[in-house]
Amino acid sequence: MNTVIDLLKSHRSIRKFTHQPITDELLHTLVAAGQCAATSNHVQAYSIIRVVDQGNREQLVALSGGQPYVAGCAEFLVFCADMKRSFEAAERAGAEIVTGMTEQLLVATIDAALIAQNLVVAAESVGLGICYIGGLRNNPADVSALLRLPEHVYPVFGLCLGYPDQQPEVKPRLPLETILKQDYYNGSEDEAQVAAFDQTMQSYYQQRTGNNKETNWSQQLRPMFSHKLRPHMKDFLFSKGFEMK
């Protein structure tokens, strides 16, 4: 195809990194590339916290569920949905601010994801590895307190960045025909396609280089949907001014 498509199709999560640092110049270039992502109405409803203090990194290891690469990677970034800056700018321009709308939460969360993914593609294009850390939402209030996040700002996820010290295999994705539907939603073939994908994933988990296990895609989903996942998030978001009205 071309180098960009080849790069996107070669993505792996990296959880072991060398000790080689990332220069400030490169990091700033990556963040600037991230900023070129699309953003709803040019709101740019995000902030990125670069966590350099090693003590804070160690606390984030615990708060994210004990993921040691949070402390060991060259750079750890926390991507935040941020409506504070936009609210204040609109208010200075004479607006009577309405806060707490569900659409504001969606816009800020999507904006944070888009800038992060742009940054990730840029990082991988220069040989860096990455790992998203959604585990920060296990303890979002404590993460917010540690990073001193104000009202109307919440941590969406973290991102490990560094030079890879492993070469894991690319994890298979669902078949294209399962997720690409024409004109209307038609799930009549989903069960058969998922069954075939389960076989693909079972072979992957059995044969991959590290952490082999006997499971498949559907079985991996069971813990996620067999109990209430992070039920604290609604009250936490409300406390930060994202009321979902």
Automatic annotation (TrEMBL):
Q: Does the keyword Signal apply?
A: no
Q: Which domain of life is it from?
A: Bacteria
Task: Report any Pfam family annotated for this entry.
Answer: Nitroreductase
Is Isomerase one of the keywords? no
The Nitroreductase domain sits at 9-163
Q: Which UniProt keywords apply?
A: Flavoprotein, FMN, NADP, Oxidoreductase
What InterPro entries does the database record attribute to this sequence?
Flavin_OxRdtase_Frp (IPR016446), Nitroreductase (IPR029479), Nitroreductase-like (IPR000415)
Instruction: Write out the similarity annotation.
Output: Belongs to the flavin oxidoreductase frp family.
User: Mind telling me which NCBIfam families this protein's record contains?
Assistant: PRK10765.1
Quote the protein name from its UniProt record. Oxygen-insensitive NADPH nitroreductase
Taxonomic lineage is: Bacteria, Pseudomonadati, Pseudomonadota, Gammaproteobacteria, Oceanospirillales
